User: What shape does this take?
Amino acid sequence: MRGFKSSGSRPVAVNMEPGFTVITGPNGSGKSNIADAILFAIGENSPKQLRAANGKLSGVIYDPKKEDGETGTTAAERPNSCRVTLQLVNIDRAIPVDNDLVTITRELKETGENVYFLNGKKTTRTALGEILDLAGLSPGGLNIVPQGAATKVADLTPEEKRRIIEDVV
Amino acid sequence: MRGFKSSGSRPVAVNMEPGFTVITGPNGSGKSNIADAILFAIGENSPKQLRAANGKLSGVIYDPKKEDGETGTTAAERPNSCRVTLQLVNIDRAIPVDNDLVTITRELKETGENVYFLNGKKTTRTALGEILDLAGLSPGGLNIVPQGAATKVADLTPEEKRRIIEDVV
Amino acid sequence: KKTVFMAAFAKIREEFGFIFKRLTDGEAWLELEDEEEVFSGGILLMARFGLKPAWESLSLSGGEKAVSGVALIIAMQSVQPHPFYLFDEIDSHLDAINSANLAQFLKERSRAAQIVTITLRDVFIARSDMTYGVYSAGGISRYVHYKPAAAEVSVKRG
Amino acid sequence: KKTVFMAAFAKIREEFGFIFKRLTDGEAWLELEDEEEVFSGGILLMARFGLKPAWESLSLSGGEKAVSGVALIIAMQSVQPHPFYLFDEIDSHLDAINSANLAQFLKERSRAAQIVTITLRDVFIARSDMTYGVYSAGGISRYVHYKPAAAEVSVKRG
Ligand SMILES: Nc1ncnc2c1ncn2[C@@H]1O[C@H](COP(=O)(O)OP(=O)(O)OP(=O)(O)O)[C@@H](O)[C@H]1O
Ligand SMILES: Nc1ncnc2c1ncn2[C@@H]1O[C@H](COP(=O)(O)OP(=O)(O)OP(=O)(O)O)[C@@H](O)[C@H]1O
Ligand SMILES: [Mg+2]
Ligand SMILES: [Mg+2]
Assistant: This one.
């Protein structure tokens, strides 16, 4: 992550090993922003799903909000883009790409322009989406469950419950 | 409480002393039903606010659901009414009634008929509502905060936030 | 209408700032979108947590929204006295520190008014004057009460 | 369309029943409102907790809805394999026993797939293979990781 939400303008990495990983920390520390970064990398475009500030996609770019004269640090310039890279172990070739490691990168510029890379080669959101979809990794996928979703599912009407199962197939 | 939701068909009482009272217990044990019982007694009529089963006001009447042949106990008949009594200490005369103790009772029959009592004398929902309103105790009042309300308030749009403050005055 | 609204708004704004400061290590305030035409704009809830910049409530995290929401509700309650207050699981999204601050605040407030909170967490039980344990026996709720000071507290299946 | 739907529904229904039994001391199932005209009716989620009678999901308590919802989501995930699973605070409305059951269940499932959960509660941290602590320093998130077996866990202000 670089310049994505609260991750700040210097690049940071979060390495998750197989097995059971737990993320914890105080309220507002940036836990859910990690989930948003993953959704962003695999092509999520909805400002609401990404909980982007001001309801615009560019709201996911790190904003130090120093403009109101708070104690500005040198690193406080607002970057004009953000980039998230997701690396997935692919030894079982679940993702139809012939590499042991699959690297997906998405960069968003303040202008609204998006650039996607798959293993270092430029690609489009649609092409990337088709490959990831086959591996069960898509922005609307059920494998990423946002805060509050579990209770909402039980509150759906019978009709809505049928519809979400229809969407799964 | 008698015959109200999970309180069962025999009368039960919950006495709360002044100070800081905490209600705890496993999921589904009947904690929020106590809040619903209080709302019911002071005149709440919305099945949704009372979380009444099947979306009908009569859904708050205790339902042992024995009809499908489960091990029926003798007490398992579904009562045809429910009654909730709320006793409030009124030494400071916050409620405009000249008694140290104010007792409010509401009974709902399966037919949909409601009966209200104030200190033993029959009264109407409207008359009771006017008296309680002066004491800051009304079904839509802010002093009873249901499960999930706090996060919802912060999620309101600026327009909605202004409206809830307008309603307070 | 405007004068009545502005008087209540001023009181709520003042209470909100005070309560938020007691609950967190930050500060928060309410802003009118349109100072002149009050009813043609809304109200913004701005909150600053710790050393972070201030954000409007819609950009806060789940727990930050819960704390801000509770502070606003309690501030709005101050416009009129109420015989008692009842809060149902207002601590479910709070971390350990925010929960402890909130429990402490409500405990102090309970000196002047009766406060009842429904909770699953020990941090509230430990500060209560009286605790009600609710459990279900075959679909019927049963209620036991005890003073927590002595008892080792734990939530058991009814 | 109907055959594809029914095949997925049958698998989800079976998984849902199995998962719910693992998470609670009750049982739950899915019912089609209209067995013939599947698409003109909905799906009912029925759940029975402990010795209580069964209720449709809309009449359950907050915590009972959370457990049923999680079981349904995990059942729906089983229709297609996914490279990893991420759950954000699915335990916030659960009591101590339901939280422990859920943490245990996810720990076992993590043998076959990578599972990441965001949580404020120690009951999940204690069972994790690796824990990430996130804290904020002046509005910028920092990440530290440790293996919980050794460390005394507590959530601190960043
Ligand atoms: N574009 C941005 N630039 C800088 N900071 C941002 C940006 N967008 C959001 N934030 C910050 O990220 C914080 C929210 O982080 P997040 O939702 O991940 O918290 P969390 O750890 O999940 O907390 P909780 O336990 O309350 O759910 C907000 O407080 C906000 O200040
Ligand atoms: N009319 C009724 N008759 C009998 N039982 C009922 C009735 N209405 C609701 N219930 C039962 O009450 C239970 C819900 O109780 P309640 O919502 O008070 O739980 P809770 O203690 O608040 O749990 P949580 O911690 O999950 O919020 C449901 O499981 C339901 O079975
Ligand atoms: Mg979060
Ligand atoms: Mg409840």
Remarks:
- DSSP finds four helices and seven strands in chain D.
